[in-house]
Amino acid sequence: MVVEVQDNLEKALKLLKKKMQLDGLQRELKNRRFYEKPSVKRRRKAQEAERRRRKASRRRKRY
Asked: Where in the chain are the domains?
């Protein structure tokens, strides 16, 4: 990941955190910190997929 800010270190750090959050890198690091059983992984992925479906459905209902 490349963040280009010449002078302001705080601004560069803020941009880096924002990019990491948008890429899902922080969540990925959190999930990989400890071993996750395959059954737990399947359940989590199913819950995330359901959350995405509901969110997409809410977006479609607005318009």
From this structure: 9-62
